[in-house]
Amino acid sequence: MSPETAYLAPEGFVDDLVRELGDGVREVHGRLVIAEGPERPAAWAANVWREPRRIPSASIGDAAKKLRAIQRNWALYDLAHHRRAALIVENLPKVSAKPIAFGQPLPAAPLGSWTLLAPDLMLAAPSCSSAFPNGEPQFVEDRTSSPSRAYLKLWEAFTLLGVTPMKDELCLDLGSSPGGWTWVLAGLGARVISVDKAPLDPRIAAMPGVEYRSESAFGLDPRSASVPAVDWLCSDVICYPPRLLALVQRWIAAGKARRFICSVKFQAETDFAVIDAFKSIPGSRLMHLHHNKHELTWVKLS
Ligand SMILES: C[S@@+](CC[C@H](N)C(=O)[O-])C[C@H]1O[C@@H](n2cnc3c(N)ncnc32)[C@H](O)[C@@H]1O
Are 147 and 173 in contact (CB under 8 A)? Predict the structure, then answer.
């Protein structure tokens, strides 16, 4: 058989992933979509299983032994035959499931993924795109300082990218109310211009380096001399995706933003034309974060 790759969809987004992968899809098992050929960029994949192997196993012990013979760390995608899968897990080395603190680097140890396609047949991939089990990073949350849980998206994006704004860099936070993203950015020591018609939480507005502007993100013209060049343009604005696309295209054309992190929020229907347009912007990447809802995160770092 020609090479194949397995893509794990986030909860609720199998149809989007199947549509994105197109004609190459061979099989769908729960959230796991097996497609022809080597790994392709897939925004709707939480984790990509590279060169998965079908491994027959005669018993629970045999299955665990075969996985251990490949490498130490394995994460189960619990598709079916749950009791048997749990018993195999008991025979594998423990993999830490502890949430990480923001600022910690990505776990470095290779983490494979496996599942039971049938009681006596595993699908297993020692190499996967995500360092986290099933592509689901968990953080030690701060439930008191941030006024919204949206900060988890930014924590996740910075952790996956391995980069954050530096002290004194200038960030534009569009659609910033009530202030979760501004809280993250200012907490890193960056200067933040925080833009929303809705107010910022007063505790966030009072953070050092934060300037709040009560206006529309779309009213800022990056070609204007009065609009400063920024190191990071961050947007979590609720708007139609084509409107966000036009906004980032304006900022790119004006050369006024060095880096971008933007939530592309969909209505009831996913807008695949806009997805293609974002994907085609050079040097950028589109991904579904574990902390995203019906939205994707578009990033451009250079
Ligand atoms: C999901 S919330 C942002 C949450 C925020 N990132 C946080 O961490 O707290 C989306 C925000 O987009 C704002 N918004 C909608 N249209 C806007 C516009 N034209 N300009 C600026 N903000 C806008 C809304 O007022 C809302 O506060």
Answer: no
Query: Per-residue pLDDT tens for 253-267?
Result: 999 999 999 999 999
| Regions in the chain scoring below 70 on pLDDT | 1-2
- Topology of 4-135 in CATH? VC0802-like (3.30.2130)
Top-level class of domain 151-300: alpha beta
Q: Tell the residue nearest (CA) to atom 19 of ligand 1.
A: 216
- Rounded to a whole number of angstroms, the CA Rg of the chain reads 21
Model pTM above 0.70 = yes
Is ligand 1 within 6 A of the CB of residue 5?
no
pLDDT score of 1: 61
Determine whether the shortest distance from the Cβ of 181 to ligand 1 is under 6 A.
yes
Q: Which candidate in 265, 279, 293, 300 is catalytic?
A: 265
Ligand 1 binding pocket includes 183 (Cβ within 6 Å): no
**CA distance to 149, 151, 154, 297, per residue, from 102 (Å):** 14, 11, 10, 18
Residue boundaries of the structural domains of the chain = 4-135, 151-300
